[in-house]
Amino acid sequence: MNDSKPGSGPPASLSVRALALIPKARILGLPGDPRLSAAQRNIFAEADERRRHLLPHELDHLSGNPHSAARLVGALQPEAEALVARARSQLLDKQPELIQPGGGLYPPFRAAACWRDLWQFLRCVLYGAASGIVDFTSPRGVQALELLYQELHVPLGAMVCGLELLKQNTIMVGPIHQPTGETVVACFDHLIGSLRGFRATQEQERLT
Asked: I want to staple 77 with a disulfide (CB 3.0 to 4.6 A). Which of 53, 65, 106, 119 is the partner?
């Protein structure tokens, strides 16, 4: 998803398989979504390539889409760092063992990768909300992310909990109960459901 891809650590710590999966683990499907115009697909392709928030003129261009929450996204983007920081603090309050020796986010580079992933997840959720398309992910990218998380032994329960906290914090910041706010919530739910699916897949594999 980003230059420091989901779950990544120092280069020396990554397996050959993880290095092969990293460029494939790009979860955003909007750059190739036929429901968007070519110009809008290009907006998302360029923004995703640079791992940046949407610019004001891009949000204006997207605001006419059905169910678009572009204006709300414009208000939420500047809060992204604070939203992630709050979710991080809340997650560690709930599960302090995560960053202790033997925990799923230990040593520190694993925790840092988790917080980066949460920021990138929020970025993609806001892209989806701005577009008005709730199922904004790429199935292939999501599948690659699942394999990458398995390879790196990412603590999925913690990631899901972090995303849920991020959703709750976002609801508290923005006027989410407006119609466009429902799009933001639905985009979060879509991504959270995808990560929960990772856990279901792993549980099925353990039973077979």
From this structure: 53
